[in-house]
Fold these 4 entries.
Entry 1:
Amino acid sequence: MNIHPLFFGINSHKHLGEYTVLTSIWRKRRSVIITWLFSYVAILLLPIVMGIFVYRESSAALEEEIHRANDALLKQVREVIDNELESVLRLNTEVTWNTKLQELMFTNIRGQDSYQYSLYQIAMDFKMYKTFYPQITDFYVYYSPDDIGLMPGFVRSGKEVYEDVHNNPDFSYNDWQTMMTSSKKPSFVPLVYRGLNGSIHQSIAHISYLTSDLNTKPEGAVVILIDDSKLLSALQNVQLFSGGEVLVLNKENQILLSTLETNQHPVLTNRVLSDDSGFFNEKYKGQDSEFYYIASKKSDLKIVTIMPSAVVWQKAIYVRWFTYMSIVLSILGGSLLTFFFLRKNYNPIKQLIHSFAGESTVRLNEGNNEFQFIQHMISNTLNEKEEVNFRLKQQNYLLRSNFMTRLLKGRLDNQIPIEDALPAFEMHFDSDHFAVLLFYVEANDQFYSSINGNSENEKTKLLQFIIANVVEEIMNAKHIGYMTEIDDMLACIINFRDTGQASNLTELRQMASEAQQFLKNKFQIELTVSISNIHTSIVDLSIAYKESIDAMEYKLIMGRKEIISFHEIQNEAINEIPQGYYYPLQVEQQLINFLKIGEYDRAKETLDNIVDRNLKINQISLPLARCLMFDLVSTMVKAHHEIGDTQEESSGASLKEIEKLTACETMQDMHEQLTEMLKEVCSNNLAKRKSTLIQNRHQDLQTLIQNIVRFIQENYQDPDMNISMIGLRFDMKSTYLSKLFREQTGEGLLDYMNKVRIVKAKELIESQNITMNEISSLVGFSDVNALIRIFKKYEGVTPGKYKDSM
């Protein structure tokens, strides 16, 4: 496929301009231009998203500030209203608690000669109150039993009070009387007020009711009137937003005071919530408005302010439009810059594509962009080179490994001399002194767990690669070493440089130890190493290999993770003094008996003695060591059988433990496994014995507690019965006995004795008509005061009150 349609303004098509670019992008939708375009757009979107975020945060902060300002304004209005109504509440308190009015309400002076004079005195007191509270429009007290009204300086009938203060066609005398006696809770209500000149005024009335009995209807009411024009004039000093208005509602959401026409807003009484404060939005006078409300601190009133939304949110609207304009400008400017840099940055890519396209048969297609095409071309070249080198190394490594295996096992092809084969496999030797080291991997679980995502085969190859490289590097520091895999182990052929045989063996052991420690510390790979004797011919490598195999078998006795030298084993075999095999029948029976009784320490001591006597003192041979392993396995089988654990789950677990023993490769492993088994078996048997003892002790304690309870039930009448007496009765210390009783029952012994006596005392109180002195002696108290004190402690009342309640 020809790639030139991708490029901007090629040859005679330059006059097509932007149309050519858009057409190329669409036809090459996988082009790097699209990738760059998305990148530039992402960069462009970042400040836009940040701007939106900043706008949201600033809007939230501004909204919070606006609400805080409105709340402060509402609190200012509330302060004005509360200050104006504080005198009403204070006057109501003084009138209600007037001693003469209280005497009228709560004493029977009606019909007495002093009755009329008392009414006159109350009216005179009210006249004095009127002088002290000039801001109060008017007030009176209505007393319904005699249908009279007490006004400042006057005593009138109820009808006269109504006509002087409230006479109005919309509010009849019967309505007025019903209001004066129909409720008990004080409240603010809207009420019509008739002035001295006969003019009608709207006023706010505070009504509190008078009653001489909580269970009867009110006998009258205290009515205090304040003209709403006074409150409105006080509100003029509060600076509201432009067009802001105020409502004052009572607890029934009736409008008491308003700076607007209340009949325009019937919905207000439904929308103001029962909360102490809040706000909501609603249409008012054809425009959106904000309604804020708050409860009065000194009364049950609620103040509402109404403000146009356009005024409240003027700053927020400005911030919103400013953000919108900045986003639009960012998009326009970013788009122009994106188009400019796309054209500028694509020219070098275009020239590079032309260069590759002319040198290769591979062409840019719909599935690749320009960078992928260039990367593909470079990768193909590098991969071809790497593949050739890898194949050469792989073939050489496999051929050399096969050659070394045949060399160690003595199966070389006699047609090709060894000296001629070595250079072909990139091997060379400096001397005729050779030795073989075998490496057996004992623990690789930690190494495998540290590698994720590879198969077991790949992990094994990696492990062998690491061991081979570490060993070769250490050996090649002073000698020549080559590693190969052979029979689940790794073998290393060592060629010594001109040194003596004895020193070579010592140095070889040190180097093997160094490799072993490094692999353990660095990679958690643990090895057992065996070393052959030193031989003076390359042909004798097969003998050296067999010697290292024989030495490796001795890990059964010497244990894992050791360095075993065939030379040392050979010397020990020559100097070995035959010793007896130690595992008598009585020792075996002792070991079984210790297991049965759970004596772990003595069982372990016996096992350690058997192993030490055979491996360290007697130093038995390899065949006898195998016999000892089988004998110890047999002992564990006998022990499990004699313990008699017949449960299916336990039997299965025992069988698995025996299988672990038979799978041990060294005496050290078997010794460790046997020790763990001894510990588990002894722990289980010991736990069973302890469980039996605990059950027996618990049963004994239950029997003791039952006997104590029975003793108390039978001897509660004895005044000498106490904790010390009970302790002597059961031959135990009183403190210890009380502690046992609390632990078993959750209740103190003294509390239980007192409760038994109180229960018996209640039965006597309920069933017999006898004195408290007699009851106290019958239930075991030394005197009646003790009975009263303890009875009240547990029942909350004295015996006398309890008897009265019965």
Note: Confidence is low (pLDDT under 50) at residues 1-16, 646-651.
Entry 2:
Amino acid sequence: MDSVPHIPNRSIMTDTARIPDKPALEGLESKWGGVWETEGTYRFEREGATRECIYSIDTPPPTASGSLHIGHVFSFTHTDLVARFQRMRGKHVFYPMGWDDNGLPTERRVQNYYGVRCDPSLPYEPDFAPPFQGGEGKSVKAADQKPISRRNFIELCEQLTVEDEQQFEALFRQLGLSVDWTQTYRTIADEALFTSQLAFLRNVERGEAYQALAPTLWDVTFRTAVAQAELEDREQPGHYHRVAFAKPDGGHVEIETSRPELIPACVALVAHPDDERYQPLFGTTVTTPVFGVEVPVVAHHLAQKDKGTGIAMICTFGDVTDVVWWRELDLPNRAIIGFDGRIVAEAPDAITSEAGREAYAKLAGKTPFSAKQAVVELLRESGDLLADPKAITHPVKFFEKGERPLEIVSTRQWYIVNGARDAALKSKLLDRGREIDWHPDFMRVRYENWVGGLSGDWLISRQRFFGVPIPVWYPIDAEGNPVFDEPIVATREMLPVDPSSTAAPGYEESQRDQPNGFVGEHDVMDTWATSSLTPQLAAGWERDPELFDLLFPYSLRPQGQDIIRTWLFSTVLRAELEHDVAPWANAAVSGFIVDPDRKKMSKSKGNVVTPAGLLEQHGADAVRYWAASSRLGTDAAFDPQSPTQVKIGRRLAIKVLNAAKFILGFEGAADAPVTVAVDRSMLAGLATVVEHATRALESYDHARALEVSETFFWTFCDDYLELVKERAYGEASPEQASAVAALKTALSVLLRLFAPVIPYAAEEAWSWSNDGSVHRASWPAVEELAARGDAGVELLELASLALTGIRRAKTDAKASQKTPVTSAVIAAPAAATALLASAEGDLRAVGRIADLGFAEAEELAVRDIVLDTPQEEARA
């Protein structure tokens, strides 16, 4: 296999001038960050690369609107651990960074930051200066925001996202992400527009993208359609109203509804086909109260026999179930809620009675809340309200970024097929999910549940401003009406294109908005319609075919669990439609960050921690250690007031520096023969650590790799280093050379094991005795230790226990660890004493024991210790 040409990492005799008098973590980020950038340490080596030697990462592009939070540090560190490991394994690592800068979050931030709002009807002002510069503008109410042209608004979006991206990059660099910063992209740049629009045109050509007039979830605040993946349920207070519908025989049917204001939009009553109470009514009609419209009673399996009275209104449209009933039962559309969220002025044609139309006139122009109050009063007056409203709480659908309940309105929108109505496509998408190796594996179920639960195709059009324009125009007939059923699509040569400023193919600009002319599509694509193409975008699809063939399908998609339904699914969908493959071999899904009360951290909850202060106070290595300690898919609690794991990580990084300084102070070479049994035992134990850590990282279990490496490191420092330091300090001899060689060999291996987690400390310590970067050094292999560490690991374990016993005996005698010992006995099983005999010299030296004997016993213990201090002589 071809591999990245590693920077030389040959061991050299230590140049003590390289080692600082007092090693410290402070300043390492700026020191090594500059070196890595200058030397191109993390640069993707395209020349000479083959698919077999490339490891490509489909990096999540963070939304460039506001500030990064601790969750970004958490999940991006997980990705970086993989990138660093694979690079040290000899892979050409493609690790780009993207910025997701189009979409609603950016628009909201621009509105708040500059105190403006977009009004497309206004002309462009070339020298426009926003009312606020550099402030959050949050004190400016929406009504007080200055209206500006779409072009002016987009310019402010461009300006602010660039500023945010620079701050994000600086923080990611400080964190030590080994990103190739020459491989960056923006989801609003020309390359992204080209890729997104070309993929859309291909979807149109294959019949996978279409427009339709259909019920659409609508956010009345943002005046935009909302996709299924952007929904969330929130518990809201409400009331059930028991209402009477008149039967032809003079009786009535009772229903309970939380939305009586939609009675004028009622098109049927529905009950479960097995509900014996209502089976006699199926096929008959009833009359709506107040508005006097005759509607059918129908059966459908989604009706709930145990909810309310067991029979419900079907209205156009109260919720997504109404949409299902309306579509499957082929019912009429009598929608009464407009794009502004208010009751439309014109009553449905079905309301024909004078009394019904007068009643409707009292609702026109009202909000649903006010209309509800008006209808309740009308029901009281007519006698059709059968009981006082009953207070309830119930789940209501919201746009995940919205503050008002969603309504369902009829709009013309663009869709991409996603398997909701195509069993064959749904089956393929499930198969693609099974082809991907998920880490952890149980996250696959979330993907499959999402695919299985899809109820409609993917709505991709948005009524926003800062986004990828949909590359479509519509002809205008002789009467001046747009012909939406005959869209004019852009040609590839026109891309990227904005239909609002470029004439349609075959037309002149003077024909815009004129009879027999054209009108440009004003909608933009959902931001996920671009983010779903990050593999294609970063790899140069249709722009750099050679690079794309090298990288795609990618090796890894790392991401959060909350966007499996959006980013992960939509990327699988686009790869299936365009390439007929899964877009990556692996998916690594990080857990959430939760606060000390185990609540997910989010801006809406006000419990988000920003990482800048944490990095400044504790250092990047310490923060990375905290992130690396959590397994994929596992939520991690974080308390900014007491960041215990961060402090442990800082302690580890400092200990690595100090241990390296201490070891490199010994005279001798790392490649000298290792002849002493306890030295070989230590290296054998380290070989096992390398084996386990490597296997764990290959399985995307970075937490396990860190655990085994760190556990060995503390044993190495506390026991082995203490055990052999007297010998290492001694005069030149084969035994002294063996200790120094084992110590320096172990240091080299440990620095490489720790390099992905604490890259700054590892690089600093490595530089004291090696040329080149530890991050371009080879990942440690069992083979480089096996020949030098063929002794059993039991010897070091036993020696460590014996050393602990000697220390405890001195402590129990209230003596200093430096106190000389006249004599002592190590008692242990026969096999153990035979092994320990080979470490007798080191045990005598570290314990300052003149005469060390051995005896048989069931368990290892240090006894009969005689301290060589007359005033403190004692036995233990």
Note: The CA atoms of residues 501 and 520 lie 8 Å apart.
Entry 3:
Amino acid sequence: MADAADFQGTSASPARRWLRRTGALLTGAPLLAGLLQLPAAAPADAAGQEAPQAAGGAGSVSVAVDSLSPTAPAEGDTVNVSGTVTNNGKQAVTDAHVDLRVGPSLDTRSSIDALAKKSDDVQGPTGEAVDGKYSEKFAKLTPGVAEPFNISVPADELDLGRDGVYQLAVALSGETSAQPWDQVLGVQRTFLPWQPEEAGTKTKTTFMWPLTSTVHMTAETGSNEQQTPVFRDDDLAEEIAPGGRLDQMVSLGKGLDITWVIDPDLLASVDAMTRNYEVRGEDGTTIPGRSQAVAKQWLAQLQQAVTGKEVVALPFGDPDLASLAHNGTNVTGSLSHLKEATDAVDNTVPTILHVKPSTDFAWPADGAVDPSIVKVATSAGADKVIARSDSLQDNLSYTPSAARPVGGGTTAVVADSRMSTAFQGNLTKASASTRAVQRFLAQSLTLGLQSGKQRSVVVAPQRMPSVSQAQAMAEALATLQSGNWSESQDLADAAKAKPDPAANTKVPPTSAYPSSLRNQELLRAGFEQIARTQGKLDSFKVILTDQSRVVTPFGRAMNREMSTSWRGRGVDAVGYRDGVESYLAGLTDGVKLIEKSETKLSGRSATIPVTVQNNLVQGVEHLELRLTSKNPTRLKIGDAAYEEQHVTVNGGHSQSVKFTTSANANGRAEVVAQLYTEDGQKYGAPVTFDVKVTEVTATVMLVIGGGVLLLVLAGFRMYTQRKRAAAHEADQDGTAEADDNADNPQNPEAPGDRLKQETGAGSRAEGPEQPSDPAPDTAAESADPSGTGERVDR
């Protein structure tokens, strides 16, 4: 076994190294002699004996280091290592013991990466074992059974030399029936940062602490005065509840020196939950939200946590800058959404958190940049782009400071990729979390020891850390901030730091953008759908008396449609966009024309009513209703082929608009009613109906004239008949009187008077009543419709 002094960077005393080498030689001589006399190990037989472990692989026993404290020890500390060992083989392990072994110092960051990839390789170097009294023994390890261990050793016993990062291996040694000699059967390597005293030059470290989430709010709001918002799910309530992901991010972050990076959409969503809100269920119905108290508590904790700290606000909804640059710039209006998302910060972050955030920073997904991304990122006002060192790479033997000019007045703030990705993956197991923490600290210390110059380093972790990832981040950051080689720095100060003249300032070409990230982008069809929705919104809002009730929720929804959180969730993204567009279509259809049946027009002129219905809660105006005749030679609307009238309808009401028409010929004429906005754009679907013209013709006039002539003739006949009757009566009276006078000359009564007495006739000369005389009264005109179809006013 190699001595620790054989490895570069170890500085144990010469006397101690000589004693250990001599002891190892004396101890190993008998063992070597015994090994030379042993026959070669036989292969595994049918009884199930184990074959020797292949070189370069994991051992038959797995070792998990669940805890290492302190994570960065100082002189006088006691290092505590705990975990479990599990026998994964088929044979029991006897005379087992777990010990700690200190390996060589790791002087380069790449050597840390290499060791992390082979942390459980039993064939690799494990370093020198610490004094045997600092070990834990097991008489027997049964297959499949995990056994805990806990070892404490003074830091002074580890014989750590100069400042640096050391390999610390936890090894399980023992025997099996197939291989009855002491050997390493399992190992787990980790990193031990050693900086016992204050460094002469400390690294300035900026740690971005992201508060973002997925999209939760829809464009839908209630029809009440408060416009009760509707959430697509209740997941946000779980995230901000005690123990939830966002609750942990706030609780852990409030005690750290960090830069808060916040999506305003998250704040707006939680703020909406402090009042009445609805949650849409899987069946499409909505139920009242019940997390008002939780939302208020979370916001209060966040307000307290960010007080006096640097806050960087992303554009509203955290737009996917790379998707916009690669697929959206050629779609009209896409860049304007980014500007609107940036402007929306002023109405959210200061109002809710009572702090003024910085909007100078743009953060593309995973810090991957190309010229088009930088151009889009700065188009809305930001002049600093957060990149990552695996995108904007340097060909240097050391890590330069984060800030560097990339042209056009833009500063690229290059986050360290090794430290930024240290907490990715599943960290729910304690062993995985411990490895992540120790690796992060090792990278940080090694970076600081590369040169004697002070540098500014930025850490930009994943946008939405899980609870376990956040806990690991907080543990590592707490150690870093209390350690001896690093000091905290705000992101704005890191961006202002003097750039390293040797650092790369050339943004990689678009062809270098990772295909794995490109495959997750929002496609052009998505931006086209957003543009289509915006066009419908523009046509709709001009008719509203209160545009803000519609423009604001839909504007924010379209910002959410471009969110970086949709990466890897393409199906969900399409469903959200469809939902927004469908809801807008439903509102737009609330103002429409009522369908009409066939209309009958009798006479040369009449009025045709067309009804506009408004099912919205607010009134509509700035609308023109146009009625057009498809056959103006038969039917005119007004004085031409069409006529327009202004329309204003109160919320929840309908209004009929009447148009004057004139007919020139009989038959059917097709008429189209269409609403237009004041700028001449069609609004809604047209309504088409037929008008049946039954004009008064010459034949009808002849019939009417004949009837009038008959009435005149009848009157003339009555007149002549009455005249003749009167003359005849006079003749009869004269003859009778003459006869009476002749028979009785003494009678003084005139013959005519006697005739009147006998007949009862009056003094006026009237003839008998004729059948053609009109009746004194006529019946009321019937109000029933004369036939099928719709009649119009005349």
Note: The chain is about 30% helix and 25% strand.
Entry 4:
Amino acid sequence: MSARSVAGEVFLLQLVVVVLLVAAAVVALVVQARSDAMLDARHRTLAAAGTFAESPGIVAALRSPNPSAVLQPSAQAARKIAGVDGINVYTLDGVTLTHSDPRQIGKRVVGPFSRAAAGKSFTETFKSSLGQSVVSVVPVKDAQDRVLAVVASPVTVSNVQSMVNRQLPVVIGTAALVLALSAGGTALVSRRLLRRTHGLGPVEMTRMYEHHDAVLHAVREGVLIIGGGGRLLLANDEARRLLELPADAEGRPVTELGLEEGIATSIASGRSATDELHTAADRLLAVNIRPTAPFGQAGTVVTLRDTTELRALSGRAEVAHERLKLLYDAGVRIGTTLDVERTARELAEVAVPRFADIASVDLLDPVLHGDEPPEPGTEMRRTAVVAAKNPHPLYPVGELIRFVPTSPMALGVVGERAVRVADLRSTRDWMAQNPARSQRMLDQGVHSVIAVPLRARGVLLGMAGFWRVEPSPAFEEEDVSFAEELTARAALSIDNARRFTREHTMAVTLQRSLLPRGVPDQSAVEVAHRYLPAQAGVGGDWFDVIPLPGARVALVVGDVVGHGLHAAATMGRLRTAMHNFSTLDLPAEELLSHLDELVAHIDTDEGSGEQEWQGLTGATCLCAVYDSVSGQVTAATAGHPGPAVVHPDGTVSFPEIPVSPPLGLGAGLPMETATLTLPEGAQLVLFTDGLLENRDRDVDAALAVLGAALSGPARTPEETCAAVIGAMLPSGQSDDIALLVARTRRLDPARIAEWEVRSDPAAVSPVRTACARRLAEWGLEDIAFTTELILSELITNAVRYGSQPIRVRLLYDRSLVCEVSDGSSTSPHLRRAEATDEGGRGLFLVAQFAERWGTRYTARGKIIWSEQALHAESAADGEDLGAALLAAWDDEAF
């Protein structure tokens, strides 16, 4: 509390007064205590001396032979009881009989004992070596009233004062406590005064009240302050004039001041109000009510403004304000989605009931499908109807309407402008559209309409109709411009939605053509899959199942960040490239390496063009190659989540797969792989990150939910897909989802045959014979001759040009696979031999009689393989074989 404020000055003044009063009280108490101490010393010594002088036996003791021996003990005991310095007995000639110091007994003293010897008692104050002292002297008389001796009782004032001094701290402490309580009370009072005066000083308070009076009485706006109970506390001059208040109005309830009921109730209610209009006498007053808290005591302040002259303009201003607000709301509410039908309904919802009682939107059919609008026509489909009260008499949503030339809608199409019919009851031309329905509209009170063309970029999209029903007033001319402005904003949103629908349809068509429509037939795995597009549109997630030679299969999932045509087209390019690279029969890591190089090449090539290119650095891919003979899975990932493995007992694991950078960022570095061995019946689950993304949980929690969905008793891949989608599908997914579930199978060992081959041409014949016997055991005699020919050529090439170890393997699956492996990495090439060449026709024959053939490199060499159909017709085989053998040589060769 600054001393510059009123509260501060009052506090300082009261504090000074309290300090002075407390100091004066303490001084008075100390002085009084000292005076009382001196008086107490006089009374105490006089009482002690008189009591001892009147004590029984003192006369007999004085007349005894040795008075000191008799009286000294009694005097000492009496001295201690009385609290005096001594009780001394003297003879009339000054000989000491008793003394507080026994050494003084018998000595003669000279003192003022003459008055006592005369028989009178007295008390005196004198200065001694111990300080100021008080002594009382009392004579000792016998029965005949003769003075025999005198008794003196001295006491030092300092001894008495010590008792007073022991009480002095209590006095001072009490005074300090009183001072503290007084200062605290003064501070509380001053602080309350500070809150009341808001820290203002005397000058400021004086100026404030002067300004308050000047403003309160000079302002041309009525001001009322209403307290608790609805009583009027203050009214300025303008308020008295506007309300015609009596002179004694202050302090009385507002409801008893003779005001009209409406304004009196509003003022006394205590609620907040802004520009409420009330009548008082012949005036129209705008009333504003605000609570005074927290700036003052509970109550309200009311301001009154005379708006009688503005009464005629208030209606128009309110309508204009409402129209502006409606246009603002239309800009916010229309076009929230890129859906044509939803946008049309939003237009109708904005218009009802603030502008019309019923609103309808009719669009051309091509607009609903996302196509470019044709030439303007009067055949439209009812897309949206919103009515303040249902049921409405208009055409229902979805009906195709052909407007007659005399209808407001057709006139609006032809004239390319809004058409207003102020009174539908005064004209019958519009009823030709549907007389029965039109009459029903009139019966239900529909009486006015505005038909406005929906145009965007100079093209007609449809018509909007605004209808009013009794008791609403008819549309006026100024309503037409507002309706045109409202529909113009909506038309842009509808056209944007139409164009999005067209692009979305194109993207969906492209994506469906690029995604696999089914999985190819193969025996390595049993496959089920799901693809769920995002709500925002098609995306770049994809999957594929690619059969590979040797009873193997490649399982691939990929993700391209983004949505729309660009993502779908990119996904198609990557899927096509993966198919092409898989024909090279490369390991999983090399497939991804080639794909990474392709993406980097695409980014470099496209980025050098004139158009802006965002790049494919958001593309990821996971490739897993499963071998049904060994049960091994080799997996490599480029920035993609790893797979999940569901074991036959229902347990789930997420194996650690080394993650390489996303496609296009590998910088030519080799991809890392992980190799797993899966038992038959295990399920390999591959998915894109859209399955894990959820705003309500993190990735670890999502993986836990996925593991719980995958675990459990044995299920088919289709059942597993359904369980995962049911548990993991987020509400309102923002990304598309690809899910691929493959249950592993093992090739029956009885359908596998293997032989070691020595590096000797003579070893070819025994192996060929063993292969023929095994084919006979499998019931494949129809293709035995062709198989022997193929094996002879492949084994001979391995013996001649390869290196140890040389192995032959037959796989009996959907087709017969012949594999010849050796330790050389030299790649064979198919060529047409010249007429003079003695060799070079072996691979040509293999290519002629095998459905497919190729080379697969391993860590220890290569494998040359071929595939044959299982049951070929014998005649056809013989003809094909003979033709092929003859075609290998021409006539000039013989």
Note: The CA atoms of residues 692 and 698 lie 8 Å apart.
